[in-house]
Amino acid sequence: MNWGSVDVAKVAVEMSISNRSAEEKLIKDYREKGILATGVDFGGDLISSIPKIIERSLVAAKRSGIIKESHVHDGAVAGAAREAIMQVAPKATGLNAGGKIGIARSGEHISVCIFMSIGLLHLNEVVIGLGHRSLPDMK
Fold it and tell me: Subunit structure, per the record (predicted)?
């Protein structure tokens, strides 16, 4: 099946909001449909965590076979992750944030979604950011 950018973005969002027990089933189900997906947790002060979030996104994408060892693929994931971070940063600057990164790819489409809770005492805000990039198909 030929999956488009919207389809891949939806999978990235679903991966970011899934819990660990559902994640493995989602990964398997989407792989059978031709979409590679993974998720990874993160937490801490958002601004100081930005490099760690991008690094975790890259490592997770490589480990799961979503991207190859290539600076073009690394750049696509890092760029999409940075875009997602910049969408949520205005609400989280200076506060502790924890959540999950969802990554999905089919063909030339790759999306990175960040779903997180921003904590201030017992008051939590929930935000989501999404980035998309195109890159050469791995076939």
Answer: Homohexamer.
Whole-prediction pTM: 0.93
Reference 114, options 134, 132, 138; nearest CA is 132
Q: Which two tokens stand for residue 67?
A: 């991207």
**Each residue's pLDDT tens digit in the chain (139 positions)?**
779 999 999 999 999 999 988 999 999 999 999 999 999 999 888 888 899 999 999 999 999 999 999 999 999 999 999 999 999 999 888 888 899 999 999 999 999 999 999 977 677 889 999 999 999 876 5
Residue 139 resides in a domain = no
49-52: long-range contacts, CB 8 A cutoff, minimum separation 24: 49/97, 50/82, 50/85
In a domain, 49, yes or no: yes
| Domain around 121 | 5-134
Count of domains for the chain: 1
CATH code at position 71:
3.40.1510.10
